[in-house]
């Protein structure tokens, strides 16, 4: 239970401490007749300085502080008080109030220290079995007292001697665990030993002062016959050490830490249920049993007098029916007893060959509150440059709330350090945002226990872990995609397909892994999905690109005029019907050296043999019409040209090479917090393409040539343009005006039909037909 100062905290005040140490040394030398000589500052692990305690003594009316260890004193008083240096006190204040973001981690730190002490005892008992004679049990017990406002943590570990108490708890920058590990490393006899101590807790013991105003440590080392008590209070620099003389409090071996809680924390942390929940959250997978003192209840049968009815009496009464009948009632009796809190074993520490699929499924559902089996899992160990174990799952279904899947922070990954829970709140440190649906545990041996957000962001170890975790995740998804049962990947794609598309936008480094996993509908696969690999395999020999069309639905994409010539040539076109699709493919750019081409943009090249001379003749023939249409449409279009993509429609409106497409413009307009000021800037140029073989275009060509100033021709051109807007996916600027033009055209058509009907020869008297009676035949509204 020997804490050590964290590297980050020590560095922040190292300059202050060293300067103060130098000043203290000069003072001591000047008053050598009144004090003991001062020891030099020791270097711990070559990185930070250790601070030994100071014994407070009285000499000629003045206080003289002497730095010493417990072995220096010739005569021990019943209670000896020690005092930290002022700089050490400030460092302790920094640690307690700045290092930890949640008060509740105090229990995690103290349990980890207790587990460390048990580990030390277990290891040393291999060579000295007598250490286990007084108490063969290795466990941790936690008891709360709501009336007294205390939390007591007891372990049967190695314990501490008086010297170890002074060195470990009286000196901030010490770590008994670190020194123990160093001794094991230097030993030649530990090659086959299991010395996987949690260790390096930073300043874990002092986290007790987050919730406690006073801390009492009573400890008896397995190597000593005496038991000592350490006491310290928060916000003071004084602590005391004394020998335990109360026979009722003597321990066979181990340590008891009693936290006297602050007034504000008594209600929360003196609650037995709260403590048990913290144990289950942070220390569920500690390798030693952890018991908590819990209130329980049992039901008993008693008679009306309140006396308990024993089972023998009940049987006797049943046999002798003539005995006087006594009424009985059941009461619930409450009592307190020890309850095991960490009954779940860390299956990721076992070999994958030893764990069944049912065990994996059960672990996933119990740990992450899932109610169906995961779609896939991977259990692996990484060794070499860094070492960590991981168990990852792909959930059986997507969460009902999409914010849980695509939010900045998820709680799907639980980080452990040597089986001690550290955190489940990450913002892209271990997994990119688009893989936030992955659930699992990561257990590292290389991270410090008091890891912070800053450490995660800057740690090279974490960056290496992230790359390997992402790689294993893609392996899992590939395994689902390659299964014989294609419905498995269809289920996965329905749940998490949007995440992979988001990955195309956010993770350019993994485009080659993401591309084969994408699935889309197409004009040849309207019901089922097709992969990009399948598309490339089915391409025409002269096809040079992967064609796609973005629309709001498959039905609107299928009926779009852009498809006419491509369908005629039997070319396949991908349908992008989700808002993220177009942006995803734009960022992906290509797949297997085949570029993605939007068929709704200008300069579409379809390949194949084309008669260039014939095209030039057509362009020359319709050049006058194109110029006339551009003059009358003005800035509504950038230009008018002959189309190569339509065969049955009179015209189509395509987007320029740059700017938004019609689909993207529709999506951006629908954004709740969209910036309308950028609409004109980002909107792409609109180019009107006409079909020279269509009768409407041919009639318009004749009309514009014979009477270019005709109002009727201009009106027809406006109607033609706005109709092209709708069919190409755009929205008319004034739908009401467009509707009025359509109604006017309908009236003219109906009026023309009426006049033709009136002028037809009749054998009888001429009958006047009203407008409302023109289409009375087969009228569905009349029976």
UniProtKB/TrEMBL annotation:
CDD domains given in the database record: HATPase_Hsp90-like
InterPro entries in UniProt: HATPase_C_sf (IPR036890), HATPase_dom (IPR003594), Heat_shock_protein_90_CS (IPR019805), HSP90_C (IPR037196), Hsp90_fam (IPR001404), Hsp90_N (IPR020575), Ribosomal_Su5_D2-typ_SF (IPR020568)
Boundaries of every Histidine kinase/HSP90-like ATPase domain copy: 102-265
Superkingdom in the source lineage: Eukaryota
Biased composition (Acidic residues): 302-311
Record carries keyword Kinase: no
Span list, region Disordered: 19-40, 299-319
Keywords: ATP-binding, Chaperone, Nucleotide-binding
Family, per entry: Belongs to the heat shock protein 90 family.
Protein name: Histidine kinase/HSP90-like ATPase domain-containing protein
Organism: Sphagnum jensenii
């Amino acid at each position: 239970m020997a804490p050590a100062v964290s590297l980050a905290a020590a560095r922040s005040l190292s300059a202050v401490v060293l300067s103060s140490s130098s000043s203290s040394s000069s003072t001591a030398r000047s008053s050598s007749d009144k004090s003991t000589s001062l020891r030099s500052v020791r270097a711990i692990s070559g990185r930070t300085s250790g601070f030994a305690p100071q014994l407070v003594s009285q000499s000629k009316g003045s206080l003289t502080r002497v730095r010493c260890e417990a072995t220096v004193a010739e005569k021990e008083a019943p209670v000896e008080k020690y005092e930290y240096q002022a700089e050490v006190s400030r460092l302790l204040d920094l640690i307690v109030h700045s290092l930890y973001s949640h008060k509740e981690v105090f229990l995690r730190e103290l349990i980890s220290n207790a587990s460390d002490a048990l580990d030390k005892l277990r290891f040393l008992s291999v060579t000295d079995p007598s250490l286990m004679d007084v108490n063969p049990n290795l466990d941790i017990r936690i008891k709360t007292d709501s009336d007294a406002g205390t939390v007591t943590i007891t372990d049967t570990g190695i314990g501490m001697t008086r010297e170890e108490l002074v060195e470990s708890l009286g000196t901030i920058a010490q770590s008994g665990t670190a020194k123990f590990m160093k001794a094991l490393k230097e030993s030649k006899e530990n090659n086959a030993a299991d010395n996987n101590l949690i260790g390096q807790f930073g300043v874990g013991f002092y986290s007790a002062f987050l919730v406690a105003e006073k801390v009492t440590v009573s400890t008896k080392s397995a190597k000593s016959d005496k038991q000592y008590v350490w006491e310290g209070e928060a916000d003071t620099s004084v602590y005391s050490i004394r020998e335990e003389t109360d026979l009722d409090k003597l321990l066979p071996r181990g340590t008891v830490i009693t936290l006297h809680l602050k007034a504000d924390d008594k209600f929360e942390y003196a609650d037995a249920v709260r403590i048990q929940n913290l144990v289950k959250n942070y220390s569920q997978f500690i390798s030693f049993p952890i018991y908590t003192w819990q209130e329980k209840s049992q039901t008993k049968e008693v008679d009306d007098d309140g006396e308990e009815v024993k089972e023998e009496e009940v049987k006797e009464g049943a046999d002798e029916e003539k005995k006087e009948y006594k009424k009985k009632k059941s009461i619930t009796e409450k009592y307190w007893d020890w309850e095991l809190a960490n009954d779940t074993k860390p299956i990721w520490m076992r070999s994958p060959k030893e764990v069944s699929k049912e065990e994996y499924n059960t672990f996933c559902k119990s740990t992450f509150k899932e109610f169906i089996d995961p779609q896939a899992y991977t259990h692996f160990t990484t060794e070499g440059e860094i070492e960590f174990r991981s168990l990852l799952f792909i959930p059986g279904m997507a969460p009902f709330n999409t914010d849980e899947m695509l939010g900045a922070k998820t709680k799907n990954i639980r980080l452990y350090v040597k089986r001690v829970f550290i955190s489940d709140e990450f913002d892209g440190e271990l997994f990119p945002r688009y893989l936030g649906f992955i659930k699992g545990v990561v257990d590292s041996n290389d991270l410090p226990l008091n890891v912070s957000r800053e450490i995660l962001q800057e740690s090279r170890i974490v960056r290496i872990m992230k790359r390997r975790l992402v790689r294993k995740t893609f392996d899992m998804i590939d395994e689902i995609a390659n299964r014989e049962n294609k419905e498995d990947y269809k289920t996965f794609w329905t749940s998490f397909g949007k995440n992979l598309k988001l990955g195309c936008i956010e993770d350019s480094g993994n485009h080659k892994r993401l591309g084969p996993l994408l699935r889309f509908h197409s004009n040849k696969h309207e019901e089922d999905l097709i992969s990009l690999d399948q598309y490339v395999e089915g391409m025409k020999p002269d096809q040079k690109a992967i064609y796609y069309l973005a629309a709001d639905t498959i039905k609107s994409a299928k009926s779009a005029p852009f498809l006419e010539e491509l369908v005629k040539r039997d070319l396949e076109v991908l349908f992008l019907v989700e808002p993220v699709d177009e942006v995803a493919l734009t960022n992906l750019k290509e797949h297997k050296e085949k570029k993605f081409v939007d068929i709704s943009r200008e300069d579409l090249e379809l390949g194949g043999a084309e008669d260039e001379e014939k095209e030039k003749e057509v362009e020359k023939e319709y050049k006058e019409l194109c110029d006339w249409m551009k003059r009358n449409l003005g800035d509504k279009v950038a230009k008018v040209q002959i189309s190569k993509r339509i065969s049955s429609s009179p015209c189509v409106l395509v987007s320029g090479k740059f700017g938004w497409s019609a689909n993207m413009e529709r999506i951006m307009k629908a954004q709740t917090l969209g910036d309308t000021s950028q609409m004109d800037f980002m909107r792409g140029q609109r180019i009107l393409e006409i079909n020279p073989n269509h009768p409407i275009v041919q009639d318009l060509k004749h009309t514009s040539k014979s009477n270019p100033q005709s109002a009727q021709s201009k009106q027809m051109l406006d109607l033609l343009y706005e109709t092209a807007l709708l069919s190409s996916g755009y929205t008319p600027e004034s739908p009401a005006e467009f509707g009025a033009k359509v109604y006017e055209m309908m009236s003219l058509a109906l009026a023309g039909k009426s006049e033709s009907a009136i002028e037809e020869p009749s054998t009888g008297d001429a009958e006047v037909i009203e407008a409302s009676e023109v289409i009375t035949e087969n009228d569905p509204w009349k029976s």
